[in-house]
Protein 1
Amino acid sequence: MGIQAGAPDDELPAEIDFSQGVRGKFFAQGATMNLPVYLDAKVRAYLAARARARGIEVEQLVNELLKKVIDLIEAAK
């Protein structure tokens, strides 16, 4: 995965011309980004089965579980 150190990269030019570039072209004030979360295969399978049994999406189940963990952490302070 990725480029190894010292490996030639023949797809990129030696110099890139940014003279026509526009700073902030894709910036949106206040935009939020949903980060991907990668689960272990066994954890993913377990949660998928529990979500399926409840008739909900895995994302909803994970959010519910994480909210409970946050409540427990806050209560223990």
Protein 2
Amino acid sequence: MYYNFNNDLASGRKYENRARKILEPYYGELAPCNDYRWDLKNSRVSFEVKTDFISKNTGLIGIEYKNKEKLTGISVTQADYYFIIGFDKSWSMIVDGFKQDGWWLGMVIETDMLKDVCKLPFLKRVWGGDNKNTAMILVPIEHIREHTVDIYPMVHGVLT
């Protein structure tokens, strides 16, 4: 599969805005930030927003920690929380009287807790992204879900 950073960046901004709309009723107005420190912030709280489209096929969330030889992502963020958008095939909800399995979820997890989860010895580390320059830890979505502070079901089926 061909990866294009510019397409990913545009998509990331779209889902940062979506995350902001979900979070603001609970955390207050959030401003965007365009550097490594966080993606959304106010005077009380900050969030890193991560959307993993491939999670629908893999059940895994890729947590970035290095690009080439430079620390990035979870290694350098100053965010209090991660807001992770991923597909959870085992999440079920009753909608219009029918059980629907498999939902895109927005999950809030404390950054320090996510760092602890990423230290689990059995997790796989891979290189991906543009020219395979990005180092990631692949975390099963259920490990993230089990440690979340809040879960926001977003959509059943296709994330648009």
Protein 3
Amino acid sequence: METNPPPEPLQNEMTLDEFVAWCEENQTQDENGVDLSHLRENLCLTPAERLEKHELARRAVLELQRGKRRHSPAHGR
């Protein structure tokens, strides 16, 4: 199932009701609130591309954790 891309906010100002209607029409979430657009995007990637994307996210999380530790009160700051 193909969805329409959301309108660009700067090109087309939408009311809240219009945005909700767009979301319902394009079914961006399933009945459990899972964002299907992310699943669809990832399924378009090869397994290698998905692994690379995962690795980049993992490294970003580790870097954030290191920064948090460096600036925590336990480290004298």
